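for the recovery benchmark. tokens below, seq after
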């Protein structure tokens, strides 16, 4: 529990980029130092996220941001928590999975249209609402690009729209197979500052015989989808498995 503005609030999330408390039906993400009273190297990530949420305020597949004027970020509360925990507790039908994938890709296309690279797409960074819809929620590692830039050409220390699609495909693989999949951009890199690098194909799982495997494989082939809109359109044409 944490007291925020005189209200005792349960802590509903505690990660490297901040702590999330629930205050009167609203999720509030706060810098770790605000909760624990110590300086933290990740405190500036909450401030960076505020900039991203300002840019993405009209994106339908991004968790609704209610206020960024205080020390943290006030957001709509997604009652079913993060997607990774949700999947550990429940079986999800192919129909629901496909609806998720379409919304994820549509959301990513919107995000890229607003010139943001997400950079950290994992099941833990999607939130699930009461009606089982999902939204992007974590932008602590994201980059805001110039409004008129060509996103197909942007490389932000190794991150790009292509690494976003590669990570999203790993999320799809994890949901479909139930096996954790990491599109690791830093595998085998030496200690110290490093630039994100495209994973070797042999470090990713096989996709043959897996539902939507051809789409996943295309995401893991850099440039095969030129934009996330192309990925979104491919998923709109996909069909459910039996």
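predicted aa per position
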């Amino acid at each position: 529990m944490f007291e925020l503005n005189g209200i005792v609030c349960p802590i509903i999330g505690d990660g490297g980029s901040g702590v999330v408390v629930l205050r009167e039906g609203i999720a509030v993400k706060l810098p770790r130092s605000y909760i624990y009273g110590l300086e933290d190297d990740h405190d500036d990530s909450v401030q960076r996220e505020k900039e991203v949420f300002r840019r993405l305020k009209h994106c339908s597949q991004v968790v609704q941001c209610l206020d960024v004027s205080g020390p943290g970020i006030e957001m709509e509360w997604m009652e079913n928590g993060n997607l990774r925990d949700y999947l550990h507790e429940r079986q999800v039908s192919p129909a629901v999975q496909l609806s998720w994938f379409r919304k994820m890709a549509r959301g990513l296309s919107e995000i890229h249209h607003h010139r943001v690279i997400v950079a950290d797409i994992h099941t833990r960074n999607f939130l699930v609402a009461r009606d089982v819809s999902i939204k992007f929620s974590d932008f602590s590692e994201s980059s805001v690009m110039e409004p008129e830039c060509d996103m197909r050409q942007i490389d932000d220390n190794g991150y790009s729209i292509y690494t976003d699609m590669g990570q999203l495909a790993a999320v799809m693989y994890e949901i479909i197979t139930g096996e954790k999949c990491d599109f690791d951009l830093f595998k085998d890199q030496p200690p110290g500052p490093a630039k994100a690098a495209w994973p070797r194909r042999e470090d990713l799982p096989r996709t043959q015989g897996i539902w939507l495997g051809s789409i996943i494989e295309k995401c893991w082939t850099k440039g095969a989808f030129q934009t996330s809109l192309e990925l979104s359109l491919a998923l709109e044409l996909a069909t459910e498995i039996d």
